């Protein structure tokens, strides 16, 4: 809703003659995030971390399935006490596997969010500089479904932002 309001305000400002002399620009932050070297590197590192969690999950899942197989094979041969003990061990293993999966998912989301916020903060600082140096009255974020129409005299700073950000990381 907030992005829609910003887009509408920007559209109104574009249509008024009082603002005709002002410089306006937009930027696609999602594109800048995905195509910048730091963004691509973060994406790769998150994918690598996900693969590590997946490998560990498969190992734990194998142990769990082995325990399940043992329980199914031995169920008829075990005493009631031993059977109850195996069932308890099986249930604990199932819970541990589920907890591992949930924790891994949460950690991946947190790490992705943390890295995204760091990059967005740095991109924002560069955009602030662009705004001051370029004497822009307004720079709006282009988001999916956000900007409906953009005139040719409105600058797209996305590629310039990606280039400046990548250069700042050298």
TrEMBL record:
<comment type="similarity">
    <text>Belongs to the Skp family.</text>
</comment>
<protein>
    <submittedName>
        <fullName>Periplasmic chaperone for outer membrane proteins Skp</fullName>
    </submittedName>
</protein>
<keyword id="KW-0732">Signal</keyword>
<dbReference type="GO" id="GO:0051082">
    <property type="term" value="F:unfolded protein binding"/>
</dbReference>
<feature type="signal peptide">
    <location>
        <begin position="1"/>
        <end position="20"/>
    </location>
</feature>
<dbReference type="InterPro" id="IPR024930">
    <property type="entry name" value="Skp_dom_sf"/>
</dbReference>
<dbReference type="InterPro" id="IPR005632">
    <property type="entry name" value="Chaperone_Skp"/>
</dbReference>
<dbReference type="Pfam" id="PF03938">
    <property type="entry name" value="OmpH"/>
</dbReference>
<dbReference type="GO" id="GO:0005829">
    <property type="term" value="C:cytosol"/>
</dbReference>
<dbReference type="GO" id="GO:0050821">
    <property type="term" value="P:protein stabilization"/>
</dbReference>
């Amino acid at each position: 809703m907030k992005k829609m309001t910003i887009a509408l305000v920007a559209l109104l400002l574009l249509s008024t003659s009082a603002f005709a002399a002002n410089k306006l620009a937009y930027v696609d932050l999602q594109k800048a995030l995905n195509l910048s070297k730091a963004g691509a590197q973060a994406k790769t590192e998150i994918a690598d971390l996900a693969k590590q969690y997946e490998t560990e999950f498969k190992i734990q899942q194998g142990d769990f399935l082995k325990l399940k197989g043992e329980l199914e094979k031995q169920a008829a041969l075990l005493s009631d006490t031993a059977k109850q003990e195996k069932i308890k061990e099986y249930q604990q293993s199932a819970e541990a596997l589920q907890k591992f999966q949930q924790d891994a998912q949460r950690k991946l989301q947190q790490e992705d969010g943390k890295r995204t916020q760091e990059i967005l903060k740095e991109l924002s600082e560069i955009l602030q500089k662009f705004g001051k140096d370029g004497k822009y009255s307004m720079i709006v974020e282009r988001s999916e479904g956000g900007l409906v129409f953009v005139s040719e005299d409105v600058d797209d700073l996305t590629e310039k932002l990606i280039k400046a950000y990548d250069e700042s990381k050298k």
